[in-house]
Amino acid sequence: MSADLSYPAAPFSEAAEQLRTEVRAFLAEELAGVPPLVRAKSWNGFDAAFSRKLGARGWIGMTWPTQYGGHARSNAERYVVVEETLASGAPVAAHWIADRQSGPLLLRYGTEAQKQRYLPGMAAGETYTCIGMSEPDVGSDLAAVRTRAEPVEGGFRINGTKLWTTNAHNAQFMLLFCRTSGTPADRHKGTSQILVDLSLPGIDIRPITDLAGERHFNEVVFDDAFVPADALIGAEGNGWEQVMSELAYERSGPERFLSSMALLVEMTRLLGTTPGDAAEAAVGRLVAHLMTLRRMSRGVAAMLENKQDAGLHATIVKDLGALFEQEIPDIARQLIAVAPNAPATREFGKLLAYTVASVPAFSLRGGTREILRGIIARGLGLR
Amino acid sequence: MNDVLEILTETATRLFEQKAGDDAARAARRGELPESVWDAVAEIGLPFALMPEEAGGFGLAEADALRLIRIGGGFGSPVPLGETMLANAMLAAAGLPPADRIATFAELEDAHVVREGDGWRVSGRASGVPWARHAGTITLLGGGHIIAARVGDLAVTPGEAGNGLARDDLEIDARLPADQVAPRPARFDADAVEAAGALMRALEMAGALQTVLALTVQYAGERIQFGKPIAKLQAIQQQLAVVADQCAAANAAAELAADAWDGDTSLLGVAVAKARVGEAAGIAASIAHQVHGAIGFTEEHRLHLFTKALWSWRDEFGSETVWQRRLGKAALAAPGDGFWPFITAPTVLEQAA
C-alpha cells in the first residue's frame, strides 16, 4: 500500500484574492434581494442573462487561451470565481458545464476549427453544453453504453436514448458519449465523443421532473439523427480515455461540497452569535470539515495545474464532499426547531424542505458513492 | 517539498523504520523510554528542527519542521519528539538555551514566580504532562514567565494516558537560578501552549492513521475467507475506501494547521486540525478493528499500538468538541452573510508562494 494521500497546498495568489473582492461586489449587486430558496438552486439555476454578464466580465473560460475567447488567467483565479458564485447561490447552470468540462475537453482533444468555432461562444456565456452519458440501462456501468453513432457518408447517424441529461432542454450542444463501432461487449473499445447540435432533426428532448418539482434533467431520444464528420471530438474509438480525463475536473471542484451552502448560511443567521455550546460545536464541526475540504479541493486544482495525476485525490474530495453536503440538513433540523406555523422559521422551513429533498442526488450524480469508493479501493491496490 | 525537508523526511523515516519497531512502541506504552530510539533521533538533530538555524536548527520553515512530528506518529510515537521540538521552540522564543536531551512542556497552574535573591522562587503544579519522568528539561509556562525546570527541581508523580504512555503530574516549589527563568514570550500565551499540544497530537494522529490504513489494507489482502482474500469483497473495499477518505482529510487538516502555525491564524488552524483529525481517528480506528476481526483485538497484534494511541491523542489538549466549540464561536461572530467570508478569509492558512 503506497497510495500517497497527501494534498499539496495551493500557492497563495494575490491576484486571486483581489479578484475575490471584485467578484463579491458584482454578486452582491446581481443577487440583491434574491431569497435563499432561489439561491439554494444555484447549480440548477438557469439564467442566460446572468451567464452573459459573467462572460462579459471575462469570468467564463478564464484559463483558456485568448485566441479562443479565453482570458489566460490562472487556475487559482478561476477557482475563486467558481467558489464565490456557488457560495452566493448565483444561477450558474447555463454556462457551468461548458466552463468546467466541455471547453477544457475541446482544448485538449478538439481540432483547431472546433476550438475556434465553439470556445468563444462558451467563454462569452452564450454557448451552452450538456453531457450525454447515462442511458436507460447504463448508469454506473458507463462502458455498457448502447447509443450508437454509425459512421456513414459524410458523418454519423445516431440512434439511441440518453437519460438524466442535465440541461439538455437549455443547451445548444450535447457532448455525446456513444459507441461508434463494436458492441457493448467490447466495453471501453469502440466508444467516441461527438459534439451534437441539438437543433438537428431526429432529436427529441423530453423533460423529467424531479421529486422537488424541478426540471433540470431530460430524456434525449436520437432517431436517425445525422451529424457531420467534423462533430467527432478527438479520435474515433478513443472516447473512454477522453471521458476519464474529464473526471478529475468533474470530481474535485467546490460544487462537490457547496451544494447545501444556502441552508448552512441561513442556519448560522438564525442561530445568531451565541446559540450555546452544543450549537457552537455543531457549527464548528462543519467549519472544520468545510475548511479541510476546501484545502483538499484547491490542492487538486494545484495538482491538475502541474499536470499531476489527481484521479484518486479528486475522487476522495467528491466522496467526502457529498457526505458533508448531505448531513447539513440533518444538523440544521436538530439545531433549529422548524414549526410550519411559526412565521420566524417559515421561510427557513421551505429552504430546509428543499434541501432535504435535494441531497439524495449528491451521492448519485457524477459517480455514485459506491463507484467512487470502488475507485478509491483500486487506488489502495485492492482491486 | 524543499531539498532539506526531503532529505530529513527520508532520513527520519529510515531511522524510525530501523530503530522504532513494535518493541519500542510497547516499551513507551509501559511508561519506559526506548533509549536507542531517542539516541538515534537526537543524533541527527531532530529535537532542534523547530529552532532557528543560528540556534542549532536546520533552517527549515516551521511548517516543514512540524511535518517531522507526523513521521514519529506513524511509528506510534515511541519517543517524545514533538514534545521536545516544541519545548525547544518555546525556550528559543524566550532566548533560553535548548534542552540538552529530552524536553516537554506544560502550562503551570497556581503559578507563583517571584524574585528571590539573585534567582527566582517558582511554585505551582501541572497534571498529565507527557513524558515528564524522562525529560531532562520541563518547560513550564505561567506567572508571566517561562521556566526551564530541571528534573531535580520538581516532584514527579507518574501517571499514564489511556494507552499507557507517560503522562505525569508535577509539583514545583523551588529556588531556581536566574538563567532558568525568562519573561514569557508573547507568542506562547496560555492558548498557544494548549494549541502547541493539540497541533502535535493532530500531526501524530495523521501519521498513525496512515499506518492504520496500511496495516488494514495489508491484512485484508492476506486474510483468506470463502476461498479468497477478504480484500476482494466489495463490502470490505467500501469500508477501506472510507478509511482512505479519513486519512486524506486528516493529512490535509494537519498540514493546514502546520502551515498556519507561525502566523496570525495559528489557533484557527489548530482548531480545524484537532477537530477534523480527531473525528477521522474515531471513524478509521473503528473500521480498522472491524476489518481485522478478532486478531486485531489481541494484545499480540500491533494494531492497538496505533488505535489506542488515536483514542488517547484525540482527547489530549482538547477533544474534538472543545476545538469545535472554539471554531463555532469564531465563525458565529458574524453569522449569515459573514459565514462564507470567515471560511475564505484565512488565506494565511495557505503556503506563501
Write the layout of secondary structure elements.
The complex is a heterodimer of chains A (383) and B (353).
Chain A: H1 14-30, H2 36-39, H3 48-56, H4 75-88, H5 93-109, H6 112-123, E1 129-132, E2 148-152, E3 155-166, E4 173-179, E5 191-197, E6 203-209, E7 215-228, E8 232-233, H7 239-250, H8 261-271, H9 277-305, H10 311-335, H11 343-358, H12 369-379
Parallel strand pairs in A: 1-4
Antiparallel strand pairs in A: 2-3, 3-7, 4-5, 5-8, 6-7
Chain B: H1 3-19, H2 22-28, H3 35-43, H4 62-73, H5 81-93, E1 103-107, E2 109-116, E3 119-130, E4 137-142, E5 145-150, E6 154-157, E7 167-176, E8 181-183, H6 190-222, E9 224-225, E10 228-229, H7 234-260, H8 266-292, H9 303-313, H10 320-331, H11 339-344
Parallel strand pairs in B: 1-4
Antiparallel strand pairs in B: 2-3, 3-7, 4-5, 5-8, 6-7, 9-10
GO molecular function (chain B): oxidoreductase activity
Protein name (chain B): Acyl-CoA dehydrogenase family protein
EC number (chain B): 1.-.-.-
Polypeptide structure, described:
Chain A: Pfam families: Acyl-CoA_dh_M (PF02770), Acyl-CoA_dh_N (PF02771). The complex is a heterodimer of chains A (383) and B (353). By secondary structure, chain A is an alpha+beta fold. Chain A has twelve helices and eight strands. Chain A is globular. Chain A starts with 13 loop residues before the first helix and ends with a helix. Chain B has 353 residues and is an alpha+beta fold. Chain B has two domains: 3-183, Butyryl-CoA Dehydrogenase, subunit A, domain 2, CATH 2.40.110; 190-349, Butyryl-CoA Dehydrogenase, subunit A, domain 3 (Up-down Bundle), CATH 1.20.140. In chain B, 49% of the residues lie in helices and 16% in strands. Chain B has eleven helices and ten strands. Chain B has helices at residues 3-19, 22-28, 35-43, 62-73, 81-93, 190-222, 234-260, 266-292, 303-313, 320-331, 339-344; strands spanning 103-107, 109-116, 119-130, 137-142, 145-150, 154-157, 167-176, 181-183, 224-225, 228-229. In chain B, strands 1-4-5-8 form a four-stranded mixed β-sheet, covered by helices on one side. A four-stranded antiparallel β-sheet of chain B has the order 2-3-7-6, with no helix packed on it. The chains are: A alpha+beta (383), B alpha+beta (353). At the A-B interface, helix 4, helix 8, helix 9, helix 10 and helix 12 of A face helix 6, helix 7, helix 8, helix 10 and helix 11 of B.
